Known about the structure:
single chain; 5-stranded mixed sheet; alpha/beta
Amino acid sequence: MNVTLRQLRAFCALAQTSSFTDAAASLHVTQSALSGLIKELEQTLGVQVVNRSTRKVQLSEVGREFYPLATKVLQDLDGALETMADLKALKRGLVRIAAPQLMSCTVLPEVIAQFQQHYPEIQVRLFDCMVESVLSKVHSGEVDFGIGPEREPMADIEAKTLFEMPFVVVFPKGHPLEPLEHVTWAQALQHPLVALQGEFTQRLRLDLHQSVRHLALNPANEVTFMTTALAMVSAGLGVTTCSPYANSLIQRHRLLSRPLVEPAIERRFFVFTRKDRPLSPAALRFETFLMDYVACHDWPDTQNIED
Length: 307
């Protein structure tokens, strides 16, 4: 059975007007074309849906049963098409993002706020999580895309470079490192280091060893979140390292930072997506918005505070 949408629209228009002339006019077709569509519908269904007379058109008993069903089909379809049009026009939509805790409390709130000024009907949900959880959330489909530093590649994950930044060392005001414009890793590691647990420190240790073999990265404390590390530095428990994009958080803790050199080690951050799942129009627009935001944003290498 192959009932067409044109047949359903013709039938519903006729049921609403009880007139072939008025129904044809509402659909912008000829009366003969409308009559042909009703006949095709009856042939397809194998029943008569309209009782025809010279004075008035009435639905048959079967037609009266069929009318609310046909109306619902058309309403559902029109609603679905309207939703698709809104999604394409960015009048509605949902974007789900996974990002590490540090980026989630520095860069992304500002990006989301600016994005929603342009697209207020699009909802953005941010999942702040451990760095190691970002890729798994993308892989499972829990989020549309993830943002984070370089990790071991996965066959089904595509990675687009978001930015590349050097490390800075962070310390409290009055610290011996404050007079320096740049700090070498050897100078930084003379002080107790508060580092992040897991792959962050492992990769950093490997990069340092490859560049300066005599330097040993032995943290005094390893914590899960950079906010904890900054709080410990603020309490005078050592120094820490991070990327300049965290300057807003460094400033909130009233800390200072200096570029780390000899060697100058950089970290790349990526946008991760599933290769087999195209982004929705809303998610694709947010990704482009994020890329544009980063491209025109200048994060300084140092952050000073005032008394």
